[in-house]
Amino acid sequence: MSLDNKLVYMANQIGKFFASQGQERAVAGIAEHIKKFWDPRMRAAIFAHLKDGGAGLDVNVRTALEQLRDAETKRLEQLKT
After folding, report:
1. How many angstroms separate the CA atoms of 81 and 77, rounded?
2. pTM over 0.90
3. pLDDT for 1 beyond 90
């Protein structure tokens, strides 16, 4: 199993855990979990996978990753100024 496949599997497992909370809370929970517990290299790899189309990612997971990526990009841009 490739690294991308492992990360997709892990992210989707997190998504399944939060799924019963409804979409809005699930997306927030997924994003918070990945932000807190995933190494920056893991986040960078899953963001690269997302940029390449995000094959295999569940809808809530994809949304959470997009929000997390956008927030991290914004934070990095603010640090530059």
Report:
1. 7
2. yes
3. no
Note down the domain range covering 68. Answer: 3-80
Backbone angles phi, psi at 16, to 5 degrees: -65, -40
Residue 53, CA distances (Å) to 57, 62, 68 in order: 9, 10, 16
Vertex 39: Cα angle to 34 and 40 (nearest 5):
95
d(CA 56, CA 6): 11
Does residue 51 surpass a pLDDT of 80?
Answer: yes
In angstroms, what CA-CA distances link 75 with 23, 59, 67, 80?
25, 24, 12, 9
Instruction: Dihedral sign for Cα 27, 39, 14, 45, please.
Output: positive
Domain count, the chain: 1
Q: By percentage, how much of the chain surpasses pLDDT 70?
A: 100
In the block, residue with structure tokens 């994003």: 31
